[in-house]
Amino acid sequence: MTETKSIQIDGYTHVSYTHESYPEEEILQRSTSYYNWLDKRRSVREFSDKAVPKEVIENLILSASTAPSGAHKQPWTFCAISNQELKSKIREAAEVEEKLGYDSRMSERWKKDLEPLGTDMNKPFIEEAPWIVIAFKKVYEFDEDGTKHNNYYVNESVGIACGLFISAIQNAGLVTLTHTPSPMNFLAKVLDRPKNERAYILFPIGYPKEKVFVPSIERKGIDEIACFFE
Question: What are the structural domain ranges in the chain?
Fold first, then answer.
C-alpha cells in the first residue's frame, strides 16, 4: 500500500509530517543536555580575525529562517557583510549614535546597569569580527501587482528568528553579541535597503580572541522566570 505523502485541505496542499519521539528518560536527558550546553553561551565583544566561510553564514541564516512567523510571511532579511570598508563605515555611523545615546539619550540608571557588563560607546567588534549580520524586519511588502500589505506579528516573528540565529551560532562553535544602536535608521541608509525594511539587530559573528574575559554574571533561576499551574 502506497503511503500518502500529501493531501488537499481547502484547496491547499498539506504534506505528511514526520516527527522523532523519544522515551521519557531520553527526553529529560536531551532537554538537560541542551540547557547545559546553551547555558555556556555568552555575549563576546572581542573577536579574532580568523575567517569564517560564507557557507557557514548561509547555513546560520537558513537556520534562523526556520522560525515560525505570522501567516508564514517570513518578514525578515539578513544582510551579511564581510567587506572591511563597509564594516568600518557602519562602525563609524554606529558610534555616532552610541555617543549621542551615552551623552544625552540614556538615563543614568541605564548607564549604571550597563557598567558591570563592560560595554560603552566604542564598538570595535563591528570591524574586528569577520562577519556582521544585520537582521531587518519587513513591516510591509508589495504583491506582484504592486498592492501594499502589512505583515503580521513582525516583531515577534523576527525576534524568534533571531533567537534561533543565536542558537545556531553557538552550535557552530562561533560567538556573537546583540547590538542595537538606537535609532538604527542609519543601517538601512548605509546598505541602501528598501523603505519597507527596518534594522532590528546587528550581530558580529566569528571566533573569540585567544584569551577573552567576560563579565561574571548569573542567570535567574527557574523560580524567578517561570510559574507552574499543576
Answer: 42-209
Contact (CB, 8 A) for 137 and 200: yes
Amino acid type, 202: L
Grid cell listed for 157: 516573528
| Mean pLDDT score of the chain | 93
- Low-confidence residues of the chain: pLDDT under 70: 1-2
* Superfamily (CATH H level) for 42-209: NADH Oxidase (3.40.109.10)
**If DSSP codes are grouped into helix, strand and coil, which group holds residue 95?**
helix
**Separation between Cα atoms, residue 6 and residue 15, nearest integer Å:** 4
204-214 pLDDT per residue, tens: 999 999 999 88
Helices 54-64, 154-171: axis angle to 10 degrees equals: 140
Q: How far apart are CA 46 and CA 37, in angstroms?
A: 21
